[in-house]
Amino acid sequence: MTQKNHTSRREFLRAAAAATASLALASPSLAQSPARVVVIGGGFGGASCARALRQLDPSLDVTLVTADRQYVACPFSNEVIAGDRAIEAQQFTYEKIAAGGIKLVTQMAQTIDPQARTIGLADGSTLRYDRLVLSPGIDLRFDALPGYDEAAASRMPHAWKAGEQTLLLRRQLEAMDDGGVVAIVVPANPFRCPPGPYERASLIAHYLKTRKPRSKLIILDSKDAFSKQRLFQAAWQELYPGLIEWVALSQGGKVTSVDPASNTLVTDFATHQVQVANVIPPQRAGRIAEIAGVTDKSGWCPINPVSLESTQVPNIHVIGDACIAGAMPKSAFSANAQAKTCASAIVALLAGAAPTPPKLINTCYSLVAPDYGISIAGVYQPRNGLFADIEGAGGTSPLDAPRDVRAREAIYARSWFETIGAEVFG
Amino acid sequence: MKTLRTSLAIGLIVASAAPVRAASAPPPPGAASCSGCHAATSQAIPNIYGRDADATRSTLLAFRNGSMPATVMTRIAKGFSEDEIGSIAAWLATQK
Ligand SMILES: Cc1cc2nc3c(=O)[nH]c(=O)nc-3n(C[C@H](O)[C@H](O)[C@H](O)COP(=O)(O)OP(=O)(O)OC[C@H]3O[C@@H](n4cnc5c(N)ncnc54)[C@H](O)[C@@H]3O)c2cc1C
């Protein structure tokens, strides 16, 4: 891989030199033009990677292509849904990133030609790259759950991409009468933010308990186990007794179809008509990954964990939710850690060196109540083409911790979000 | 110490091949993840940059062997060898 890159880089320089010679108005700097790295997707993965690249090598020509002027972050959006936080606290812009010398292109990338190493943008223009990083996040699969298409999402919000969907779910909860039933439909693995649905259930329960105490919340799950399960269930018992019902796959929790007109969720065993239906559908890598040819049959992207480079298409790296990262969960923390690893690998590869095998950390906090936090952490290293857990490290908060430890973890959770928001966008 | 020297050597190779600023010497394995939580400005979570390397090293080792309690760092420090912890502590000491 390294060898190949070296050759193509030389070829590129030779071609550039030839072009210089053939142009009357050639600029001498063309022959030594810096390596071009394009990053597609300005979320936690892509924006972190663009910044890390420039930090490691300020001479790099780094372009960040992202769909919107504003990024709305998912972490802590469950607090917005529960009415405890303003959506504005989730919103970030790219001005500071652009001020740091990164070229910002606010458009959808529509096509990728891995042979020519070009990207086609929505306005018809083309970008060239030596190395491309994809961090497109997820696409919701509107073909996977009968009845649940894009139109259904305006009646039964997923709120799994933050923004208007987050606010829609919040409004539905506010409009619901006391005594109503809220359902959260959870997909099978893998999906973005494994503990997210249960944090959401907790914070909605907190809202219901304080504002609409006769209401109930039911979780219809396509799994028999979930992240931080024992901690969540113990906390639900303690904080919201009788309010949350979790229906596992083996108890008939898997939703097989939905009817948005009547707000009905159908499983093999029952039909649930509810007042608020939050349907989190199955997911896959953002569409541009498939267009680039880096997805496999699962809809996600296999990578070399040392360099985050696609195992299917050379010179394209995939980070964040879109990649198949083994034991690393699809989290903003992981996306940020992968982004920095990927940037180091790209700098090494462009210099003709082999990337150093990395170690990565993830820590995911969940709020069970505004002042009650729990966490899961892991340390990972490449093994057999994936990120594997380092045995003996990581794990969840202790099951028997006193309340002041839970309160401290809630403070740390908020501090984490502030720090990462500043590191990526500030 | 051996690992530390090796990783600095690798850093120098990369630095000579591409113009990397001294302040941004490539972090040793694991160290790049720290800034997800730790910032110079953070209040609740301590600043870990530009501190004495020996102090950082002994704190991390104490997390690792459980002699110093913490919510998360005890779980994370167990993922690193003594050598790796030494390299991380030395690198953090050079950061702002
Ligand atoms: C409710 C909820 C709570 C969560 N809580 C946490 C938490 O507490 N901690 C945590 O670590 N993680 C949390 N997460 C997960 C976290 O949000 C994701 O893992 C993270 O956003 C992944 O980053 P990414 O860069 O892969 O994708 P994203 O952040 O989704 O960024 C992708 C970006 O790429 C853009 N894009 C996509 N395709 C194109 C294209 N073709 N052209 C141009 N731009 C494109 C998109 O518009 C988007 O801006 C939570 C998620 C949810 C849903």
UniProtKB/TrEMBL annotation, chain A:
Q: Which UniProt keywords apply?
A: FAD, Flavoprotein, Signal
Q: Which GO terms describe its molecular function?
A: flavin adenine dinucleotide binding; oxidoreductase activity
Signal peptide limits = 1-31
Q: Which PANTHER family match?
A: FAD-DEPENDENT PYRIDINE NUCLEOTIDE-DISULPHIDE OXIDOREDUCTASE, PTHR43755
Domain of life here? Bacteria
Organism this protein belongs to: Tardiphaga robiniae
Q: Where is the FAD/NAD(P)-binding domain?
A: 36-150
Record's keyword annotation contains Signal: yes
Cite the Sulfide dehydrogenase [flavocytochrome c] flavoprotein chain central domain residue spans from the record.
166-281
What are the Flavocytochrome c sulphide dehydrogenase flavin-binding domain coordinates in residue numbering?
357-425
Q: What is this protein called?
A: Cytochrome C
